[in-house]
Design brief:
single chain; 138 residues; 13 strands
Length: 138
């Protein structure tokens, strides 16, 4: 298991030639399936963002993230970064903000959402949008 905070800022390198594509800035998450779907990278040039599908990932290490290919994601997901998002239950109760995400680096499956009010199992995720991460009450 890996915390998103452990990979944020890590360089992303191609497996074949170790070309640096950029540094990890955020993850795109499909709350309905409870998986990380894409990596967002800050490129070497200012204001340049690259989005790679999770399927391109080869390995997450302590010093770098390795990807099989540098091809762009198609289609590019909306830029909803769960870290820093408000957390609301489907009953409308506020549960703080997302501080971190725990995920399986091999599969991209989310395990836990770390919030200001405690941990929430990923099985309770319902949706993620501009306004909040919505979880099942309970």
């Amino acid at each position: 298991m890996t915390l998103f905070s452990e990979i944020r800022g890590l360089p992303v390198l191609t497996l074949t030639d170790a070309a640096e594509l950029g540094a990890v800035t955020s993850l795109a998450v499909d709350a309905g399936s409870g998986t990380v779907t894409h990596l967002r990278l800050r490129g070497r040039r200012p204001r340049r963002e690259t989005v790679l599908p999770w399927a391109a990932l080869h390995a997450v290490g302590p010093d770098a993230v390795l990807v099989r290919s540098a091809g762009p994601a198609d289609p590019v997901p909306p830029p909803h970064d769960p870290v820093g998002s408000r957390v609301l239950t489907d009953a409308g109760d506020e549960r703080g903000t997302v501080r971190d995400l725990v995920f399986d680096p091999d599969t991209g499956r989310l395990l836990t959402v770390v919030t200001a009010h405690g941990d929430i199992p990923a099985e309770r995720l319902l949706g993620l949008g501009d306004y909040a991460l919505v979880v099942r009450a309970g």
